[in-house]
Amino acid sequence: MIGIFDSGIGGMTVARAIEQLLPDHPLIYYGDIARTPYGPKSPQTIINYSIRNTEFLLDKGAKLIVIACNSASSVATKILRERFRVPIIEVISPAARRATEISKTGRIGVIGTKATVKSGIYQQTINAERPDFKIFSQACPLLVPLVEENWLNKRETKMILRRYLHPLKNKQIDTLVLGCTHYPLLSNLIQARIGKRVQLIDSSIQTASFVREYLVRHPECSSEQAKASHTYYASDCTETALNVAERIFHRPMELIVA
Ligand code: DGL
Q1: Are 7 and 38 within 8 A, CB to CB?
Q2: How many angstroms separate the alpha carbon of residue 131 from the centre of ligand 1?
């Protein structure tokens, strides 16, 4: 069973991409809605929460963990891999790998939460492959609450996006990594503001393909079955969270509070 966790509901963009690519794999999701957001928190706090989330999923029978949160992937991956014996997949490497593959100019932008940008993880991961590439990062802390409030088409959101993306526009990037689970919901606005010539990388889609490749290489972690169950747990359930979840999945969602 694939276990997926996130700081809340944003990681459902990853869970949905996995559901679509691997519909016959049982999946269990845990969204830490009670403690969201992780983005503004310190690395140690994010690590502590990530350990708890992983333990929850392992208790429920997960054989493979996907950290469907850029902030948690940035600061907690190493510690989770040291502490737990199951494979741990994070969302940074698949997106970084794709960015390296498609960038022609070697000038890549990354947007994410404060925790993700401060960790420098995208820069390290991309430069480990391509030391000649230039990475330009921008923290966009206001975007998560705007998405959660469904302010997707508001003038204020467009203004804030313009402000965040302005420094990147001047850097002549040709690729932009959406380094936060919520940003795929803003991809049309982001594309319009950053320009058509910049290719956007959605880490949820890249991570789902990575999980599929991984399961082909490691069939021992796979447990395909017809009518596989997909269960969604959360540490709290609010109206806002359910609204976002239903917007991501385009179907009514049930969140089991645990
Ligand atoms: N899931 C987080 C991320 O991808 C965004 C929301 C939060 O800050 O908790 O970084």
Answers
A1: yes
A2: 27
